């Protein structure tokens, strides 16, 4: 079985901002693995799933991208997840109603694939975000790291939801398998 994820790849200017800030956080707090996420800068659209045949997903994403108009969303400021002992600091993605509808349509189409696996925060429960720090965050350092992040230049980017990308995951390394451009 091969593992995949579905994401929106960030444009270069936003990706550069995210990489630089991730590295700054990692160095300031000696966090391990934060910068080396082993994934291209992205916003998750569908968390990891496994399959022996990615063909049906490729066909679905191809059709979706051919019929879905570009929509807008923005990245504005910082936010956090705190779930049990897991902490994530991220750039907050603010979708327009049209982007929410586009993601909902994508989710509904993916739900037609009977073998598709769903995680608790997938689908309508997904919070759009671009991760800045997660590895090495603990109850002891989380608030200090967040205070540091809040002192950094706040992101303020207007983006187009213009791609849907399949990532292939091998040994926790995420590589672009196929990118579908939304017209």
Task: Report strand order across the widest sheet.
Answer: 2-1-7-8
- Relative strand content: 35-45%
Report the principal-axis shape. Answer: globular
* Largest sheet properties: 4 strands, antiparallel
Count helical runs: 4
Q: Structural class of the secondary elements?
A: alpha+beta
Instruction: Count every beta strand, where a strand is a DSSP E run of 2 or more residues.
Output: 8
In oligomeric terms, what are we looking at? single chain
Uncertain runs are: none
- Average residue pLDDT: 93
Q: What is the assigned CATH homologous superfamily? A: Cyclic phosphodiesterase
- In CATH, the architecture is Alpha-Beta Complex
What's the CATH C level? Answer: Alpha Beta
Q: Please write the string of helix (H) and strand (E) elements.
A: EHEHEEHEHEEE
Count of discrete structural domains: 1
Share of residues in helices: 25-40%
Structural features, described:
- The protein has a single domain (2-181), classed as Cyclic Phosphodiesterase, Chain: A (Alpha-Beta Complex), CATH 3.90.1140.
- Helix content is 30%, strand content 38%.
- It has helices at 12-29, 55-67, 97-110, 142-150; strands at 2-9, 42-51, 71-83, 86-95, 129-133, 156-161, 163-170, 173-181.
- Strand 7 (163-170) and strand 8 (173-181) form a beta hairpin.
- The two termini are 32 Å apart.
Compact overview of the structure:
The chain has four helices and eight strands, in the order βαβαββαβαβββ. Helix content is 30%, strand content 38%.
Give descriptors for this structure.
single chain, alpha+beta, Cyclic Phosphodiesterase, Chain: A, 4-stranded antiparallel beta sheet, globular
